[in-house]
Each structure stands twice: as structure tokens, then as C-alpha cells.
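stage 2 :: seqdesign
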């Protein structure tokens, strides 16, 4: 039985998940890679969507060895 004065919560329509995968991947491509990867916890459908984005946004400034980071970036850019 509901408590006195309790209001019924309405469930909002999930319009984002109704989009086709290529559109979601395009949206994810504007996010930093680590943020795009975090979307994998939203649902089973989203688990691998971030892995198909066409570009990576890496923060090389966080690397301890900047020379290794630059070499890695050169290999990835090929």
C-alpha cells in the first residue's frame, strides 16, 4: 500500500535507445574515448557500441613516458 501523499513516478520514454546503432556511434564519437567506453554499462546493446566509433581521443599528457606516448600516437595515426 502506498504511503499517504506519495506520488506515482512516471517512466520517461527512452528516445536515445530507439536510435539506430550508427547514429549512437556518431554521438559517441564526439565524446572522449574513456567517456564513450563508460556507456557500455547502460545495457547489453550498448556494451560494444563504443568500440565501433571511428576515432579515438587519447590524452597523451597523462602518460608517464611522453616519448612512448608519441611513438604510440604515430603508429595509431598510420
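stage 2 :: out
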Amino acid at each position: 500500500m502506498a504511503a499517504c501523499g506519495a506520488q506515482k513516478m512516471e517512466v520517461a520514454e527512452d528516445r536515445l535507445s530507439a536510435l539506430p546503432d550508427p547514429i549512437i556511434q556518431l554521438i559517441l564519437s564526439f565524446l572522449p574515448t574513456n567517456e564513450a567506453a563508460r556507456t557500455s554499462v547502460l545495457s547489453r546493446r550498448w556494451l560494444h557500441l563504443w568500440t565501433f566509433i571511428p576515432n579515438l581521443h587519447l590524452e597523451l599528457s597523462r602518460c608517464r613516458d611522453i616519448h612512448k606516448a608519441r611513438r604510440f600516437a604515430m603508429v595509431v595515426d598510420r
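stage 3 :: structure notes
- Helices lie at 21-28, 33-38, 66-77.
- The longest helix spans residues 66-77.
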